[in-house]
Amino acid sequence: xxxxxxxxxxxxxxxxxxxxxxxxxxxxxxxxxxxxxxxxxxxxxxxxxxxxxxxxxxxxxxxxxxxxxxxxxxxxxxxxxxxxxxxxxxxxxxxxxxxxxxxxxxxxxxxxxxxxxxxxxxxxxxxxxxxxxxxxxxxxxxxxxxxxxxxxxxxxxxxxxxxxxxxxxxxxxxxxxxxxxxxxxxxxxxxxxxxxxxxxxxxxxxxxxxxxxxxxxxxxxxxxxxxxxxxxxxxxxxxxxxxxxxxxxxxxxxxxxxxxxxxxxxxxxxxxxxxxxxxxxxxxxxxxxxxxxxxxxxxxxxxxxxxxxxxxxxxxxxxxxxxxxxxxxxxxxxxx
Length: 336
Known about the structure:
By secondary structure, the chain is mainly β. The protein folds into two domains: 5-27 and 36-217, no CATH class; 253-336, no CATH class. The protein is 10% helix and 30% strand. The chain is built from three helices and 16 strands. The chain has helices spanning 5-19, 210-217, 240-251; strands at residues 68-70, 82-84, 87-92, 95-105, 108-113, 116-119, 127-129, 136-144, 151-159, 164-168, 179-188, 195-206, 268-271, 286-291, 294-298, 329-333. The strands form two sheets. Strands 1, 2, 3, 4, 5, 6, 7, 8, 9, 10, 11 and 12 form a twelve-stranded mixed sheet that branches. Helix 2 packs across helix 3. The longest helix is centred in the first third of the chain and has 15 residues, at 5-19. It is elongated and about 65 Å long. The termini are far apart.
């Protein structure tokens, strides 16, 4: 694999192992089909799914060093925080089988092998090798159903001299859990948070970051304003404007340039009729109306001390008049 990726992953492993005292060392499996030992990042399984945090926002986009995985055979060049899997194996009846196809349909990861189609709990223990020498890989340690899509707990493992050192890929949420959504066919520019379609790639959208929290709130790219065409049955293309609006909304990215104007854990109210979000207290002040390119208007910044470097009009008294597209989001400050 490219030499620019190995030091990045090694550094993350060392730093994370120092901070995650609850991690246990893992011994190197014996033989190609040996089963890895279980690793607990906490005293038991990860916490509830969907993740907690309702109306609490975050300033963090969710840009981890392993933010996007390119499956074997994906011929595009590596960009940003991409890593390429050289081989993927899924464990079936105690034996590992090589994966021949990878897809994520509305957030559900599906792996194909010569023996069948695999998803859900079958994917626990799968190995996504990152080098030809099989010295480091990503694995799925837990899968949870429910909410907008399944949740996945992913970890990075690498030989550290004595065994396989292990670290979770995602930063913890407010409960200390490391959940992620898996979003297929997108690319996120970490500089300006623009989201574009990129067929074949797999985005790790940490639930503790805006890329995951937007989905938790309902702004998933597989939520559509229209139905499949009669007789076709195929869903419409990914609704990236809706997803990008959600990410801007979570981070108070007023200017649409990737800069957040909020503090982690700030509570807000959001209205979007398509995904069923409504205000709990409509008497509160309007913050803004968001679209995929940032705020259409701004009245009361989420952070009173925020410095907004773009010119935005004040929202009208009836801000719903700006809700002219299914992906627009109207936000209000939370009750005291």
